């Protein structure tokens, strides 16, 4: 650490070439990460707008803002856009793209052109989605359940399915690239057990991406064929089996939950270690728990089908397997907590997000166990209890991790610091707004309010108004970073290479890094998170 | 030949090969959705599937299997020829042979498709089935066209890629030190071949 004022490097990946062409044809993983950052932010704002309209509608019991048809479209488009165009790509394509090569000491991903292709494929899928949205939206629910989606719905199902189908290949390309890169491009001395846990998490995520995504692709292709040519593979009237669709759909879409949450878990491991100045407690167990979640996550899809008419024995086994996934998830939570023990903790904004993640993910995870219990699930199935549960995982978990990571690595990405006080305020507003939005929904669901209805009995109004009020606070919380992060691009203080005093190869190079990342390929001689070398030496 | 992100040629080669294997894993899952649907309906509609399967031309299917297996042999020989440093014309010749065999497969497949079209065995409004179990037979033909159609698309892509690789081979681009594109094209070709080896008995040989 130098004592003089930090300075910007004269030439870095952002200012080496300013032309549009140098951005649109770039093969630099850092620039591609920024292309993704812009794209997914656009979709996040779009998806949030739908959410805002949903919460506005639910302010009153009578449904007097939009028609029930349009309400169906609102929650469908909200789900589709948030899941396929924001949550799934969010951390892998932005932070993963930017950080994986830097964390392993490589100049780039193994296949830079494939990486750029991934962004173009994503964009093409996004164009189909926006076309479907502008043409009037889709009303099937994000789950595309057949035969409604394949035969009866009069909305833009085909266009939307094509969009999701295409975007899936973006996931596959990115996951493939990460797997090969992590296997083959690690710097000398960087063994598997010296890797940052973020890399392990992205590796586990990539396995799900390459093995799960093709299944949803072929399934949506079959829905499209049934819709366009009336060939009944899922329609019972034509001899098909709608349960087959549900099996194939959830075979991907349950693991997709882990595509969303695992990268956040990786981010949180980095944040907890840095801001408590401790090595992650039980490093190897945490690393393997990511892989365990990826593997076991493929075997639990049937818990979405407890009331679908699948056999009771299948339900029993899926219930048991779903409980199993809780073990590696709980291991992570315990080990993060143990890492905090006797740490020198500082409460910078990224740490606030990380601590928020631990609390909210725990609530989301434990309510997941309620839902994995067969009898309990029959009671709360398709109610707001489920809605609250998965928002605690996806918003309270995945997005908290994404925001924490974005703040933590913002100085590395841009070379400038964000305003810390504003960021802490935003983190608190998001945490409060989130809980006010979604905690009442647990109660609503437990009391029996079904999801996907635009009207409800008057007795549920108080809790719904609380939820809508929380959503507006949450909206303010998300707008704050948009403003102060953009402000910091020009006005933020110069960060220097390592403003957090963090460990990890990405902090050894200037901020912003040069195009080739490192002047010399680094050689790794110590384990990850060696924050207190004296203790590690004695232990 | 060495791209900027790699340290040396062996790292580049290993990355290319691993990348192709991972891609093939995604392909298995992609086809896997159809194989899962086939398994579910074969279990439910065994009798209808057997009856419908008898209308497929087993002779043409067997001939196509032989054609495709031979093409895998010529592909393997082409990769081997590059590894041991044979002349460009030798490697390119084997690749052109592979490509022609691939085209022969697609030609025979087209004859079969035409035959099914003439006999109204294409699922949809024009499907005509003499006998009972019409729905079951239609499901069989739906899966037949979906599975062999997806396979044929992969064959078409393969023929295109082999053409490009053959042109590069003819220009002497591949040496014992560097032949990554040829090697991973070979992996892809064998994969598409193996898919057919599963499709043939599942579709043509139902008793």
Notes on the structure:
The complex is a heterodimer of chains A (539) and B (207). Helices cover 68% and strands 0% of the residues of chain A. Chain A has 539 residues and is mainly alpha-helical. Chain A has a single domain (28-538), classed as Cytochrome c oxidase-like, subunit I domain (Cytochrome C Oxidase, Chain A), CATH 1.20.210.10. In chain A, helix 3 runs antiparallel to helix 7 and helix 4 packs antiparallel against helix 6 (157-184). Chain A starts with 19 loop residues before the first helix and ends with a helix. Chain B is mostly helical and 207 residues long. Chain B has a single domain (31-204), classed as Four Helix Bundle (Hemerythrin (Met), subunit A) (Up-down Bundle), CATH 1.20.120. Chain B is built from 6 helices and no strands. Chain B has helices at 9-44, 46-53, 58-83, 88-118, 134-170, 180-204. In chain B, helix 3 (58-83) packs antiparallel against helix 4, helix 3 (58-83) runs antiparallel to helix 6 and helix 5 runs antiparallel to helix 6. The radius of gyration of chain B is 20 Å and the shape is elongated.
Keywords, separated by commas or semicolons:
heterodimer, A: 539 residues, mainly alpha, Cytochrome C Oxidase, Chain A, globular, B: 207 residues, Four Helix Bundle (Hemerythrin (Met), subunit A), 79% helix, 0% strand, elongated
| Structural Rg of chain A | 23 Å
Gross CATH architecture of chain B: Up-down Bundle
Mean pLDDT of chain A: 95
Helix- and strand-based class of chain B?
mainly alpha
Please indicate the percent range of residues of chain B in DSSP E strands (runs of 2 or more): under 5%
**Number of separate structural domains of chain A:** 1
| Cα distance spanning the termini of chain B | 53 Å
Total count of domains of chain B:
1
Helix content of chain B: over 70%
DSSP strand tally of chain B: 0
How many helices of chain B in DSSP terms?
6
**CATH fold name of chain A:** Cytochrome C Oxidase, Chain A
| Greatest interface (CB-CB under 8 A), with counts per chain | A-B, 42 and 37 residues
- What is the general shape of chain A? globular
Characterize the biggest β-sheet of chain B: none
Q: Which CATH first-tier class of chain A would you pick?
A: Mainly Alpha
């Amino acid at each position: 650490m130098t004592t003089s004022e930090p300075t910007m490097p004269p030439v870095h990946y952002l200012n080496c070439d300013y032309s549009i062409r140098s951005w649109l044809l770039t093969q630099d993983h850092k620039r591609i990460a920024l292309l993704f950052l812009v794209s997914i932010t656009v979709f996040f704002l779009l998806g949030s707008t739908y959410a805002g309209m949903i919460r506005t509608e639910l302010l009153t019991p009578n449904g007097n803002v939009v028609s029930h048809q349009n309400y169906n479209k609102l929650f469908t488009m909200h789900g589709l856009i948030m899941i396929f165009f924001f949550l799934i790509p969010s951390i892998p394509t932005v932070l993963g793209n930017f950080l994986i090569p830097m964390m392993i000491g490589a100049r780039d991903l193994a296949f830079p052109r494939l990486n750029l292709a991934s962004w173009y494929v994503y964009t093409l899928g996004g164009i189909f989605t926006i076309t479907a949205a502008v043409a009037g939206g889709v009303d099937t629910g994000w789950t595309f359940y057949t035969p409604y989606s394949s035969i009866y719905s009069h909305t833009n199902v085909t266009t939307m399915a094509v969009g999701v189908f295409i975007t899936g290949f973006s996931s596959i390309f990115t996951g493939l690239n990460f797997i090969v890169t992590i296997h083959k491009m690690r710097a000398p001395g960087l063994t598997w057990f010296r890797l940052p846990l973020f890399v392990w998490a992205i590796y586990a995520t990539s396995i799900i991406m390459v093995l799960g995504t093709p299944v949803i692709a072929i399934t949506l292709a079959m829905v499209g064929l049934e819709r366009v040519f009336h060939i009944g593979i899922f329609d019972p009237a034509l001899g098909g089996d709608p349960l087959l669709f549900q099996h194939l759909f959830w075979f991907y879409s349950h693991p997709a939950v882990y595509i969303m949450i695992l990268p956040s878990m990786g981010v949180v491991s980095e944040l907890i270690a840095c801001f408590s100045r401790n090595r992650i407690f039980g490093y190897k167990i945490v690393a393997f728990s990511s892989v365990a979640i990826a593997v076991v996550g493929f075997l639990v899809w049937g818990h979405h089908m407890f009331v679908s008419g699948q056999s009771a024995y299948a339900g029993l086994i899926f219930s048991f397997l779903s409980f199993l996934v809780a073990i590696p998830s709980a291991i992570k939570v315990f080990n993060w907590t143990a890492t905090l023990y006797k740490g020198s903790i500082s409460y910078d904004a990224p740490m606030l997000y990380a601590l928020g993640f631990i609390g909210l993910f725990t609530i989301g995870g434990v309510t997941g166990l309620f839902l994995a219990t067969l009898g309990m699930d029959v009671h709360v199935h398709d109610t707001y209890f489920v809605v609250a549960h998965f928002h605690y995982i996806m918003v309270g978990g995945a997005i908290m991790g994404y925001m924490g990571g974005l703040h933590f690595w913002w100085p590395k990405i841009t070379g400038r610091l964000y305003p810390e006080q504003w960021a802490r305020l935003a983190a608190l507003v998001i945490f409060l707004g989130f809980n006010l939005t979604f905690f009442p929904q647990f109660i609503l669901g437990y009391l029996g309010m079904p999801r996907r209805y635009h009207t409800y009995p008057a007795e549920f109004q108080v809790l719904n108004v609380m939820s809508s009020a929380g959503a507006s606070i949450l909206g303010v919380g998300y707008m704050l970073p948009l403003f102060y992060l953009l402000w910091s691009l020009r006005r933020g203080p110069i960060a220097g290479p390592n403003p957090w005093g963090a460990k990890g190869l990405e902090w050894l190079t200037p901020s912003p890094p040069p195009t080739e990342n490192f002047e010399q390929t680094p050689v790794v001689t110590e384990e990850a998170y060696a924050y207190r070398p004296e203790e590690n030496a004695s232990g | 030949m060495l791209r900027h992100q790699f340290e040396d040629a062996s790292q580049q080669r290993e990355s290319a090969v691993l990348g192709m294997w991972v891609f093939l894993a995604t392909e298995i899952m992609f086809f896997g959705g159809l194989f899962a649907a086939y398994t579910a309906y074969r279990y439910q509609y065994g009798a209808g599937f057997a009856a419908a399967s008898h209308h497929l031309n087993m002779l043409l299917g067997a001939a196509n299997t032989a054609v495709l297996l031979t093409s895998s042999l010529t592909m393997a020989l082409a990769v081997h020829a590059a590894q041991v440093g044979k002349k460009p014309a030798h490697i390119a010749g084997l690749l052109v042979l592979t490509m022609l065999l691939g085209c022969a497969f697609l030609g025979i497949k087209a004859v079969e498709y035409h035959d099914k079209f003439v006999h109204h065995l294409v699922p949809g409004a024009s499907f005509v089935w003499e006998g009972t179990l019409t729905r079951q037979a239609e499901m069989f033909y739906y899966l037949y066209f979906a599975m062999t159609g997806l396979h044929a698309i992969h064959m078409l892509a393969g023929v295109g890629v082999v053409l490009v690789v053959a042109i590069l081979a003819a220009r002497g681009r591949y040496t014992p030190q560097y032949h990554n594109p040829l090697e991973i094209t070979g992996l892809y070709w064998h994969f598409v071949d193996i898919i057919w080896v599963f499709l043939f008995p599942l579709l043509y040989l139902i008793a």
